[in-house]
Automatic annotation (TrEMBL):
PROSITE patterns with a match to the protein in the record: PPM_2
Transmembrane segments: none
Protein's recorded name: Serine/threonine-protein phosphatase
Lineage: Bacteria, Pseudomonadati, Pseudomonadota, Gammaproteobacteria, Methylococcales
Highest taxon above the source species: Bacteria
PANTHER family registered for this protein in UniProt: PROTEIN PHOSPHATASE
Coiled coil: none
Ranges for domain PPM-type phosphatase: 1-251
């Protein structure tokens, strides 16, 4: 099994960078043996105090706690424990800075362990799986839009009212609240396939890009893909561009042949072209 990471981040047009991220040591074979590969991204909550400090505290405490995992402890148990401790750390920071429950951060953590994906998330940072040329979001966002969609599905409000509500992006859960009102996780680890790509990003990325645009950026090595995601967003020159951060994890099973990422997509293209030519010939 091999996991290749890529990352990129930019302040956008904001005065302060309130995104934070971290990766575990992907060369630490001893820890990988029982803890796998860890990636974490956080986004300080806009409109609250000390967003940068909240995101930094959430990421640093989460990584430090997960890194203290003992060999016999399960990945699920270590992730849950790290999330609880990261939340307490943000709560404590808010208390000491004089703004209890008015300082917060989203947090999204993913672990690839023995060919399976585990995740925990609070807030609205997104986790995507890219497989076979398609992309899909794995986690659920904790914002008011979910309640609005439920009301629309029940016929209480119209779909247009749900889609245009001014508070639809308001967060309902984030680190810095005690107790946490909600958290998202996969109940069973997700088996990965050779060639899968995991994308973790803050709203500065996904709010500006379509699924097709994200897929186009991911058609290269992980580091180049993460940078491309930021570059495409910044090229749109949005006047109020938010902070933006992208983490990309490319998974290859141990048994796979050493095909480069550019070579892999080129191979898919050749296969697709062959099938099209065959279809035309048979027609």
């Amino acid at each position: 099994m091999k996991v290749s990471p890529g990352n990129a981040s930019h302040i956008g047009r904001r005065q302060q960078q309130q995104d934070a991220f971290a990766l575990s040591d992907f060369d630490d074979a001893e820890f990988i043996e029982h803890g796998g590969y860890l990636a974490v991204v956080a986004d300080g909550v806009g409109g609250l105090a000390h967003g940068a400090e909240a995101a930094d505290t959430a990421v640093s405490r989460f990584v430090a706690d997960y890194r203290s995992k003992f060999e016999q402890q399960s990945v699920d148990s270590a992730l849950d424990e790290a999330l609880d401790h990261a939340n307490h750390a943000v709560c404590d920071a808010g208390f000491y800075l004089g703004c209890p429950e008015r300082m917060g951060s989203t947090l999204l953590a993913a672990v690839i362990y023995q060919g399976q994906l585990y995740w925990r998330s609070v807030g609205d940072s997104h986790l995507y799986l890219c497989r076979d040329g398609r992309i899909g979001q794995l986690n659920a966002g904790h914002n008011f839009a979910r309640q609005l969609q439920t009301l629309a599905n029940e016929g209480i409000i119209s779909q247009q009212e749900a889609d245009t509500h001014p508070e639809r992006q308001a967060l309902e859960a984030f680190l810095g609240l005690n107790p946490l009102p909600a958290r998202d996780r996969n109940r069973q680890p997700l088996p990965l396939q050779d060639g899968d790509v995991i994308l973790m990003c803050t709203d500065g990325i996904y709010a500006e890009l379509s699924d097709d645009e994200m897929m186009a950026c991911l058609n290269q090595t992980p580091m180049a893909a993460a940078q491309a995601l930021c570059d495409v967003v910044l090229a749109k020159q949005q006047p109020h561009q938010d902070n933006l951060t992208a983490l990309v994890l490319a998974y290859e099973s141990k048994e796979s042949k050493p095909v480069s990422w550019s070579g892999r997509f080129a191979l898919y293209g050749v296969i697709g072209l062959f099938l099209l030519m065959l279809a035309e010939y048979l027609a």
